[in-house]
Design goal:
Helix content of chain A: over 70%
Oligomer: heterodimer
Largest sheet of chain A: none
Radius of gyration of chain B: 27 Å
CATH class of the largest domain in chain B: Mainly Alpha
Number of helices of chain A: 12
Largest sheet of chain B: 2 strands, antiparallel
Shape of chain B: elongated
Order of helices and strands of chain B: HHHHHHHHHHHEEHHHHHHHHHH
Structural class of chain B: mainly alpha
Radius of gyration of chain A: 21 Å
Strand content of chain B: under 5%
Distance between the termini of chain B: 55 Å
Chain lengths: 336, 503
């Protein structure tokens, strides 16, 4: 008898928790970068390309990209652990577009580096950042469309029957247009938060960030609600699940964060934003679970614990956090 | 069978090789380069060669841009690709080794942070702190190798895992340690060769001489680790896998032999230009050494990948994503029933599943050329006998009528003219072609599954008899279904060899 590989190696809740935490980190870094790029391109800063706040962002973008990629790896791993069938199938249906994501990210990455390394901050910055912007727009669209398709097994099966070459983009735009727009406006919102935070001692920059935070939030609440209204058959299970309470929590906390940002109470505002962020990622997680429950219910998967590898991972994980913390302390600390 | 098959014209092997080669080169270089940087920095700081520090700083910029950005993203790229090309195998690796992947990710994150801080820290950090971060970089990068090595070697030699299913049996499998040290040697060698390449462009002064010798030391130490560990590695590959690969004498052996030559050439270049006349180590020599080193490495990886055929995970899953455990069921009940993603074209679905992950019709490992001028019965026979063909293919895991369907599917796409017409041949030349097409896939004279003894020392009539009863020799061997003209040409060809032998 050959070993069966279809099992979970720790109880599902541990994987769910790790997924949600790492996906939150990924999305926050992504929002910092993507939202930041949008605001730098479209915001009205004084003497934009010589503005110290703008420069700071430009210097940080490549690092934010490194973090986005790195924090993206973990949730992608966990989602493949729990939903391999759905994720790969949907990715194969859009194979070429999915694969192109990697190349496009590399281009965006180098554009951000080019921008960070270029000495004179002039209109060239605009070109580099625009390249990065277009690339990331593509990546975000493909991600949303592929993950939305992964929630529709009947649809991807049908699509595959028509075309096996991986050149299909999820045609059911209705089901994910607002999901995508919610992601984009959300990125602008969080980007606005960071601009305000970094510009807290620079009134004009703070004002730009504040405006984007306010209007971004209005837009993301609107797109989010429209997306929710469009859930269709999922609406009933959604309303019966904890997700609906999390929606309330996220809304209240987001508005609270906005209020305290305007009051320049940054710590409270950040905490509220962070908690509402995790709560929204959790909502997303629950919605997927509900959408797929008739096709694949992860809670029915065999659990075949691998405690020693898991504990070793945890040790390495803590070690990673400690090491990074230590290195940052070295870097920003006094040098002997 | 629960995944769709991504049907693209480019061969899977080519896509995989393309991205894997890029990634693997950069990833090993990123580890060796990390060690190189910290060791060189330590020495440079002690002796206070200011110039050298500047040189290292410049090197580290390139290093971060290439290894961190490109290395990390092509790594993610490989992961995307294996998910598209072989989702079933990827799923197995993830389900069994998720905590290894996750731990690898933890080190990957440290590695990226450390690389960035090291690069930004040349001026900002004190020498001591800068070196600490450099060491953290190298250690975490090497730890990523340690972990990923467990998963890669598992695919070739799952060892006791095959019976126990235990994580540790799979991770610390028979080729784990030899491969780890081999790869460590490769990292060091690549770092040396790359640093040599950079140094080759400096003007020929004392600094260059010192630097070239220092870098050559790395290359030679790397080589010195690589060669014995390679022998060790090969000796740890399970014997039945290695023997099967040797027997089919295709890719793996060719690749291995080429790699020995490359390693020798590299050694000679390093000793002569690196140690004896270092000031002459110019860009041409630098490029040559780089080519030797990368070809060596490419050939090694090629060998490693092809030695595993017909499996993607030895004795557990075939390279076309079919579970060994289910093969019998499929053969008895038919494969099509188990394919979850179907189109309206049943034969095409079967063909994709059974053959397309390794072959295209007309591009990479083309089937059209292999079958041009033959007939449906022959193609079906070959499909039923794939495991006997030179090249270590998996057996066809489907029912007999399904093989028939695939055969008609292939038949519609080939050249249906007579062999003599397609290749414009006659006489023994035509006979040789007939042999190559109808027999040579499984029997090479003086080579793979040689049948010289049975074929060359007999009379014309006996050869005729053999062709008449061809279908009865072995389950895998197809009947002879060529027409009278082919038959005559084939017999003439074999007889002509016969005469040569006896003359």
């Amino acid at each position: 008898m050959l070993p069966d590989s279809n099992f979970l190696s720790v109880p599902l809740w541990i994987i769910d928790t790790l997924s949600i935490v790492t996906l939150s980190l990924h999305l926050i870094s992504m929002n910092f970068m993507f939202g930041g790029i949008i605001i730098l391109l479209f915001g009205k800063f004084e003497d934009k390309w010589n503005n110290p706040i703008v420069e700071k962002f430009i210097k940080l973008f490549p690092n934010a990209m490194a973090m986005t990629v790195s924090f993206g790896v973990a949730p992608l791993l966990f989602v493949q652990l729990v939903y391999p069938q759905q994720i790969y199938s949907s990715a194969i249906v859009s194979g070429w577009y999915w694969l192109l994501v990697v190349a496009v990210v590399i281009i965006a990455y180098y554009a951000l580096y080019a921008s960070a390394f270029s000495k004179k901050t002039d209109s060239r910055q605009k070109i580099y950042l625009s390249i990065a912007f277009v690339c990331l727009l593509y990546v975000s669209y493909i991600y949303t469309s592929v993950f939305a398709l992964a929630e529709k097994p009947d649809l991807y099966k049908l699509l595959y029957a028509q075309n096996q070459g991986g050149t299909i983009i999820n045609p059911d735009l209705n089901s994910y247009l607002f999901r995508w727009l919610h992601m984009l406006t959300g990125a602008v919102t969080v980007g606005g938060f960071f601009v305000a935070l970094f510009g807290r001692k620079n009134e004009p920059a703070f004002a730009v960030g504040k405006q984007f935070y306010l209007w971004g939030m209005v837009a993301s609440i609107a797109t989010g609600l429209v997306y929710m209204m469009g859930l269709g058959e999922l609406m009933k299970p959604f309303m019966k699940s904890p997700a609906i309470w999390l929606v309330l929590v996220s809304l209240v906390l987001s508005l609270g964060s906005l209020y305290f940002l305007f009051k320049k109470k940054f710590t409270v505002s950040s905490i509220m934003l962070a908690v509402s962020f995790v709560s929204m990622v959790t909502i997303r997680h629950i919605v997927r679970k509900l959408a797929l429950i008739d096709f694949h219910d992860p809670s029915t998967m065999a659990v075949n614990p691998q405690w020693s590898p898991f504990v070793i991972f945890l040790i390495f994980f803590v070690l990673a956090i400690a090491t990074i913390w230590y290195m940052l302390k070295l870097f920003f600390g006094k040098q002997k | 069978m629960s995944y769709p098959f991504w049907d693209i014209e480019i061969g899977y092997g080519i896509i995989m090789a393309f991205i894997a080669v890029i990634h693997v080169f950069i990833a090993h270089f990123a580890i060796g380069g990390g060690l190189y940087l910290v060791v060189a920095e330590t020495i440079a700081r002690k002796k206070n060669y200011l110039l050298k520090l500047q040189f290292l700083e410049k090197l580290s910029k390139f290093f971060v841009l290439v290894s961190v950005v490109f290395g990390a993203l092509t790594g993610v790229g490989i992961w995307f690709i294996i998910g598209l090309l072989n989702p079933a195998a990827t799923e197995i690796l993830i389900h069994n080794f998720v905590w290894a992947w996750a731990a690898e990710w933890a080190f990957f994150t440290i590695e990226i942070c450390a690389a960035l801080l090291y690069f930004y820290g040349w001026k900002k950090l004190s020498p001591k702190n800068h070196l600490i971060i450099g060491w953290i970089y190298f250690i975490s990068a090497w730890m990523s190798l340690f972990i990923i090595n467990g998963i890669i070697t598992f695919m070739l030699s799952p060892g006791d895992w095959i019976t126990t299913g235990n994580f540790w049996d799979g991770f610390f499998n028979p080729t784990f340690w030899s491969s780890l040290w081999l790869r460590t040697g490769i990292c060091i060698m690549l770092a040396g060769v790359y640093a040599l390449f950079v140094a080759s462009r400096l003007k020929a002064d004392e600094f260059k001489k010192r630097l070239i010798r220092f870098n050559s030391l790395w290359a030679i130490v790397g080589l010195a680790i690589m060669m014995p560990t390679l022998v060790w590695y090969i000796s740890t590959i399970p014997k039945e896998i290695y023997d099967a690969a040797l027997e089919s004498k295709l890719t793996p052996v060719v690749a291995m032999n080429a790699s020995y030559i490359n390693a020798m050439l590299l050694g000679v270049v390093i000793i002569v230009f690196g140690f004896l006349i270092p000031k002459r180590y110019n860009i041409v020599v630098g490029t040559l050494a780089m080519i030797f080193a990368l070809s060596w490495f490419g050939e090694y990886e090629w060998m490693r990948e092809s030695v595993r055929k017909p499996y993607v995970i030895t004795n557990y899953m075939y390279a076309n994503g079919i579970d060994v455990a289910k093969a019998e069921t499929y053969q008895e009940e038919g494969l099509h029933e188990y394919i979850q993603f179907k189109t309206s074209d049943k034969p095409a679905d079967l063909f994709r599943r059974a053959c397309r992950s390794c072959h295209t019709m007309d591009g990479y490992k083309p089937l059209k050329q292999a079958f041009d001028g033959t007939d449906e019965a022959f193609i079906a026979g070959i499909i039923m006998g794939t495991q006997a063909i030179r090249g270590n293919m998996p057996p066809f895991v489907g029912a007999e009528d399904e093989a028939q369907m695939i055969a008609s599917h292939i038949y519609t796409q080939i050249d249906k003219r007579h062999l003599s017409e397609i290749y414009n041949l006659e006489g023994t030349a035509l006979g040789k072609k007939v042999y190559d097409v109808r027999c040579g896939k499984c029997h090479v004279f003086n080579g793979f599954n040689d049948k010289s003894e049975s074929l060359l020392e007999i009379t014309e009539e006996d050869i005729g008899d053999i062709l008449d009863m061809a279908g009865e020799f072995a389950e895998e061997m197809p009947e002879f279904t060529g027409d009278a003209q082919e038959r005559k040409a084939l017999i003439d060809y074999i007889m002509s060899l016969n005469k040569k032998e006896t003359e």
